[in-house]
């Protein structure tokens, strides 16, 4: 085995380097914890809005507001669009893109796909296309 001419780091430098790396790891973990808190907050807000729109008499009817399982079964991109649309009564793809921080074209494609799947309604007003949660969902 060939030895290198480099001397091992003094013990103090090694400890300082390790401390620095631990600080960086702690900062990253803190960031992850903060993001998790934000996600939980958004989830609580979404569920609050969903519960506000529900009526017990329609709990098992066809055309009800999609429940958590149905929403979780959607692909992530569609779920993000659906969550954003719950904050608006009706919205354009541009409105949705501001909310989700994604491109307008991405939101337009997602909203159109959700409309084809029966979750949303589309209506054109002049040159703008508005998406809204289907009336049968709003009855809930």
Describe what you observe in this structure:
The chain is 60% helix and 9% strand. The protein is mainly α. The protein has a two-stranded antiparallel sheet with strand order 1-2. A hairpin with a 2-residue loop joins β1 and β2 (128-133). α3 packs across α5 (104-117) and α4 (93-100) packs across α5 (104-117). It is elongated and about 75 Å long.
What's the arrangement of secondary structure elements?
Elements: H1 11-52, H2 68-73, H3 76-85, H4 93-100, H5 104-117, E1 120-125, E2 128-133, H6 135-138
Antiparallel strand pairs: 1-2
Helix pairs in contact: 3-5, 4-5
Weakly predicted, low-confidence segments: 56-64, 136-140
Shape: elongated
Strand and helix order: HHHHHEEH
Strands, count: 2
CATH superfamily of the largest domain: Winged helix-like DNA-binding domain superfamily/Winged helix DNA-binding domain
Quote the beta fraction.
5-15%
Using the 3D structure, state the CATH architecture of the largest domain: Orthogonal Bundle
Radius of gyration: 24 Å
Note the quaternary state here.
single chain
Structural class: mainly alpha
Mean pLDDT metric: 80
> In the CATH scheme, what's the topology name of the largest domain?
Arc Repressor Mutant, subunit A
The helix fraction, in percent, is 55-70%
CATH class of the largest domain: Mainly Alpha
Q: Record the strand order, biggest sheet.
A: 1-2
Give a short account of the largest sheet: 2 strands, antiparallel
What's the N-to-C terminus distance?
Answer: 75 Å
